[in-house]
């Protein structure tokens, strides 16, 4: 069954409309599909939401599969409500009450999840057309650079913001993601996240509950019933949130209401240097994903809200069909002075780096 599954992934990828660079008009702007390839790693993107739409690499037997959830057409991405593969912002995750006060000025944002704002509001960075500033699919480091100018007042956020996201293939099956933002005239909160849904068995190979994960975090930020942080921290030890040693994603998921959706406080804190964030291992395929970042937090999400979502090739995604590893600043940081600041000023730009390493080398003993 596994062999059939990965073969179907490959055939569907080759047959889909994303096989070549293409384009269409969306909201009056050009939206295209772009591929980066280095060795046997291939990644496709669209400038709608600066989105990863496919990532293909071989399993331990050399069989190719697309390991990210997604859709067959640009139109489906424009109608997506799950942020699949996209860059989310201006502020990823949640801001309680969709409001905050900065330098004495109170800002009311556009709420899109009850009274709160999630992933930037009704029209966040995942739902806009980004400019392709650079695109080079040759040489030792194939790369693509997307930019977006977020206007003062967009979704209620203050100040003009120039955002840049660079995707680069490095070394042996490595994907570098660098997110930058510059406040042009006013201080403003910025917290970008990359929202790809990963399934190392293949996007159409069922759930991720048997895949193993290790998260380099000893604490989580506690949240209320609406997933808004309380401002307090808690140790993961002795709880279902403890992945300091690798465990199957589904080993204790039944102890939670619907699955994982929590911010981990990464060991090592914030800074400019990369530190390990997570390792995911699928024993069936042998595929491994290692993630490092300079961000202080990691939102671990097991796609709890996916339900009857028609994806690539007509495959239907259900809860726990994938997992998201969203490195980030802490949620609702603008309302918690004890959290690392997410405020960006004209003199203090935003820099957020991620490095994904893909392989079939078992990261720990079975």
UniProtKB/TrEMBL annotation:
The active site is at 195 (proton donor), 326 (proton acceptor). Pathway: Carbohydrate metabolism; hexose metabolism. Belongs to the aldose epimerase family. NCBIfam families: PRK11055.1 (NF008277). The keyword Acetylation does not apply. GO terms for biological process: galactose catabolic process via UDP-galactose, Leloir pathway; glucose metabolic process. Residues 1-23 form the signal peptide. This is Aldose 1-epimerase. Its EC number is 5.1.3.3. It comes from Prunus yedoensis var. nudiflora. GO terms for molecular function: aldose 1-epimerase activity; carbohydrate binding. It comes from the Eukaryota. The lineage of its organism: Eukaryota, Viridiplantae, Streptophyta, Embryophyta, Tracheophyta. Beta-D-galactose binds at residues 93-94, 195-197, 261. It catalyses: alpha-D-glucose = beta-D-glucose.
